[in-house]
Amino acid sequence: LERLTAETTYLGHSSSPVRVCLRESGPSGNLFPREDGDIVLRVPSPGRLERLEEAWRLTTEFKEYRRIEPPSGRFVAYGVNRPGTPPHPLGSYRIAYMFRRDSGPEFEVTSFPMIAERIHKALISLTPNPPEELSGHRPDGSVTSRPHMAVVPLPNIGHTYAHGQLMGFALLLPRDLPEETCDIIEQGVALLEYLQFGSLGEWRVSPLNTGEDGSAPVGLRRHTYMRPCRTWWSVTPVVFGHFPREKPGRTVRDILARSLADVGLPEPIEAGFSPVSKFIGVPPAKQFQVKLKQATSKLVAHVYLKFAEPVSGPILAGAGRFRGLGWFRPVEMEGDQ
């Protein structure tokens, strides 16, 4: 341990130089794993050493041809208080991974349903024996009834000069996913470096490190999509399960309440839809590439939600939520406190 600490030059990233020494005692920890925590840390998980050794082996074998990056590992939310009852309602999904586009063609957020499909297929091809929670299908090819991974966009929106172009994407996983299933999915995620778009070119992507969260653009920060808030607006339009009607059980709020309940979120006290979003840079709903079969006869629109108390993200709703539709961001409104 003394030799290891003496030779440690940085933690996590070379931009974080450290000096480390071995001590008999030290201060007690003040960060604890919390589902609603706003501090995201990278932590080891079962099989981590084997994956690092494999990355090192590939580096030594192919270093003349390419650089082999070790897998980022698992990210876990932490808070300064011990785990307990979350201070704000939480849905059944969490932001498990965030990726940024390092190079490649620029796409508007309207194209994301197509891009989400490419991301999904790439992860399946990179993951050995992909589970239902990743593929969305049972072994016999039928659609799974289990909650499964959602792919959502991280666009440049919400400020004066926003243009709505994609900066990256995030992968959402169910909060109660078994540890062994998380490990399998992580193996595929760790290998994701490129996304092919045929004649349009390819994206080179990389995971967002926890140390970059504070310095990254707002649209690439976890807190942007997770912070507790009463009012939320859609970044991508919602595909309604039924066309709203002014009768019990078919109002806009009734339909959205059922969709939110599907992802473990409380019923809103107010809800409405619009052809446009609150966020600068988000195109009108009709410009999005919605190719879902069920969307042809359904309402596709931007949506706002207001809750009785602040609700923590992430929030997604509607029929296309697993491919980037029905994705929300919080909005501070007068009287929300």
Notes on the structure:
With 337 residues, this protein is of the alpha+beta class. The protein is 20% helix and 23% strand. The protein has seven helices and 13 strands. It has a five-stranded antiparallel β-sheet with strand order 5-6-4-8-7, covered by helices on one side. Strands 9, 10, 11, 12 and 13 form a five-stranded antiparallel β-sheet that branches. Strand 7 (194-196) and strand 8 form a beta hairpin. The longest helix has 15 residues, at 48-62. The radius of gyration is 21 Å and the shape is globular.
The strand order across the widest sheet is 5-6-4-8-7
Class from secondary-structure proportions: alpha+beta
- From the alpha-carbon coordinates, what is the Rg to the nearest angstrom? 21 Å
* Uncertain ranges: none
Mean pLDDT over all positions: 84
Beta-strand proportion: 15-25%
Which terms would index this structure?
single chain, 337 residues, alpha+beta, five-stranded antiparallel beta sheet
Compile the SSE list and pairings:
Elements: H1 2-6, E1 32-33, E2 39-43, H2 48-62, E3 74-79, E4 93-103, H3 112-126, H4 132-135, E5 150-155, E6 166-174, H5 179-190, E7 194-196, E8 202-207, H6 222-226, E9 229-234, E10 238-239, H7 252-261, E11 270-274, E12 300-311, E13 328-330
Helix pairs in contact: 3-5
Concise overview:
The chain is α+β, with helices and mostly antiparallel strands and 337 residues long.
